[in-house]
Specification:
CATH architecture of the largest domain: Sandwich
Radius of gyration: 22 Å
Helix content: under 10%
Strand order of the largest sheet: 10-9-12-17-14-15
Distance between the termini: 49 Å
Structural class: mainly beta
CATH superfamily of the largest domain: Cupredoxins -  blue copper proteins
Number of strands: 32
Bound molecules: 2-acetamido-2-deoxy-beta-D-glucopyranose
Number of helices: 5
Largest sheet: 6 strands, mixed
Amino acid sequence: MVSSRGFLSWLIFLFIGILGFIPFPAEAAIKKYQFDIQVKNVSRLCHAKPIVTVNGRFPGPTIYVREGDRVMVNVTNYAQYNMSIHWHGLKQYRNGWADGPAYITQCPIQTGSSYTYDFNVTGQRGTLWWHAHILWLRATVYGAIVIMPKQGTPYPFPQPNMEVPILLGEWWNTDVEEVEKQGTEMGLPPNMSDAHTINGKPGPLFPCSEKHTFAMEIESGKTYLLRIINAALNDELFFGIAGHNMTVVEVDAVYTKPFTTQTILIAPGQTTNVLVLANQVPGRYFMATRAFLDVPLPVDNKTATAIMQYKGIPNTVLPSFPQLPASNDTEFALGYNRKLRSLNTPQFPANVPLKVDRNLFYTVGFGKDSCPTCVNGTRLLASLNNISFVMPQIGLLQAHYFNISGVFKTNFPDKPPTPFNYTGAPLTASLGTVHGTRLSKIAFNSTVELVLQDTNLLTVESHPFHLHGYNFFVVGTGIGNFDPAKDPAKYNLVDPVERNTVGVPTGGWTAIRFRADNPGVWFMHCHLELHTGWGLKTAFVVEEGPGSDQSILPPPKDLPPC
Ligand SMILES: *[C@@H]1O[C@H](CO)[C@@H](O)[C@H](O)[C@H]1NC(C)=O
Ligand SMILES: *[C@@H]1O[C@H](CO)[C@@H](O)[C@H](O)[C@H]1NC(C)=O
Ligand SMILES: *[C@@H]1O[C@H](CO)[C@@H](O)[C@H](O)[C@H]1NC(C)=O
Ligand SMILES: *[C@@H]1O[C@H](CO)[C@@H](O)[C@H](O)[C@H]1NC(C)=O
Ligand SMILES: *[C@@H]1O[C@H](CO)[C@@H](O)[C@H](O)[C@H]1NC(C)=O
Ligand SMILES: *[C@@H]1O[C@H](CO)[C@@H](O)[C@H](O)[C@H]1NC(C)=O
Ligand SMILES: *[C@@H]1O[C@H](CO)[C@@H](O)[C@H](O)[C@H]1NC(C)=O
Ligand SMILES: *[C@@H]1O[C@H](CO)[C@@H](O)[C@H](O)[C@H]1NC(C)=O
Ligand SMILES: *[C@@H]1O[C@H](CO)[C@@H](O)[C@H](O)[C@H]1NC(C)=O
Ligand SMILES: *[C@@H]1O[C@H](CO)[C@@H](O)[C@H](O)[C@H]1NC(C)=O
Ligand SMILES: *[C@@H]1O[C@H](CO)[C@@H](O)[C@H](O)[C@H]1NC(C)=O
Ligand SMILES: *[C@@H]1O[C@H](CO)[C@@H](O)[C@H](O)[C@H]1NC(C)=O
């Protein structure tokens, strides 16, 4: 049941929704935000606990901008943790200083300090999001970014009556930093979250959580644009609404060919915009989200719910429940991802690189290091091309820009050192990995194809990879080992989906292409926080071009020192 508090939050939400429609000035504007990083006691499942927030809010404030705007966010850190904020999916052309991953493009904003992220929103419109990019703090430090199209440019789909951000997340009853630390000390995966959440609220299926239910009111005949964001740390999620279809129109701030579905699949880091038509018998309908995991590992199968309620329907009516695929439904996952295509119209073309200058092939694997103090005498690790990434002590971008030697090497291999039957029988012997801060150097404006290949080192698993500074085209994907002789012939080079985060299927591969026209140091990592922490990450050093507008911008004066 939605209590008066639930109703209040709905009212506040409605207000925020309406705010999204306040007409923006026609000219590009400067949008200024103040983000105070504060610890606040927040209650969810039965008791309150202190969490790190932005401006005391959970989830944090939505950033509303228009394509072409300049955004300045002054982040002031009043918490005891070091902080940095990533603007997930913003391309940050020549401007890695505003990208945010700690020790990759900046040193953290230390307690008592401020840093202003200053960036232009160029050539992008749609839903993105922001989140902490240090430790596991993004568990509570995240929010939506809504980029409206330029004035006078309509959506390439029917104008919705209302827009609502839907942020999916994970909630721990204890301090997430303690959870992370305990996992590292044991050398094992840390405790699973205690709940999934929708707009920060778990919904009535959890203990003491009835009043922590997100609800939105809808009206018959109206169309709603849901801007869905997966802000969970470690779970790919299904999301559906009882009785209502969803029409997918955009992912990761790129328009798609519309298609209708009852469930979407969304990996951590990804966004999906759907249209929902209120065309059912007026009543109360659950929205629900639950994890997808198609390997025999413990699955975090707790279901978060929220409510869509037709206007005039009392809170006493029992909501109906959506049917979600089984948590291990591989066929659904593969089929859903196959439906995603770029819109590819003259106005929104898919500029897929047809010729490739640089071919990269990276294997994704797990490993174990000896760790005498750990539970099993070993610590779990993850690697790309058998290299587990070691975090540096200063920002890689600074080291690159100021030519500071000894911070990283640019000898990341273009292919695995020893080819093997990647997805054959499970490999459990000699699981050691090499450790290093090794990057790959990419020539300016070259076209890159990267095949990410899952392996059965310890276990196969699905991995959502996120590339900073770029969108890429997902030109191919498959199950088993990538075959360089046969698979490229099956690529989609016409209208592949364009995005910034893509799932590598369990025991399979994904091929992406992009043009390296954004100079800087750009992080690439699995967006499952657990795997990132284990070393499943690297970065590209994209060289500068000869033109005056093809070099890295000078660093801002307030860039945090180490
Ligand atoms: C936060 O809540 C806990 C549990 O209710 C309480 O013990 C603690 O004093 C509170 N802390 C603050 C700063 O309010
Ligand atoms: C950022 O906010 C802090 C705290 O309010 C303030 O001291 C600082 O001057 C602000 N920085 C800028 C550039 O406005
Ligand atoms: C953003 O655009 C403005 C106006 O064109 C320009 O002066 C500024 O340098 C740009 N900032 C960045 C970080 O690219
Ligand atoms: C993890 O879960 C175990 C078992 O429920 C519990 O004893 C432990 O305190 C939890 N760790 C943290 C950091 O919450
Ligand atoms: C949902 O879409 C399916 C397939 O397009 C269609 O058969 C069904 O009638 C739709 N349901 C609703 C509630 O619109
Ligand atoms: C969720 O997982 C638990 C433990 O793994 C299992 O007992 C339960 O049946 C699962 N529930 C669903 C709905 O799959
Ligand atoms: C999915 O899980 C169900 C129940 O947990 C199990 O019976 C089924 O065999 C699994 N399917 C696959 C394809 O693993
Ligand atoms: C670690 O030890 C636990 C408990 O002894 C065992 O259940 C588990 O399989 C081991 N895990 C690994 C990855 O070796
Ligand atoms: C790889 O392993 C799979 C499963 O064990 C097997 O079917 C396949 O033949 C192997 N491929 C090669 C090239 O050895
Ligand atoms: C990874 O590197 C370690 C240490 O050099 C080695 O023992 C192991 O065989 C390598 N594994 C693979 C899959 O290349
Ligand atoms: C990059 O290369 C393409 C194709 O050769 C060319 O059209 C484009 O102008 C180049 N871009 C820059 C920024 O040099
Ligand atoms: C915060 O960041 C600074 C600069 O990198 C570092 O020296 C310090 O140890 C960090 N503090 C903590 C608590 O991690």
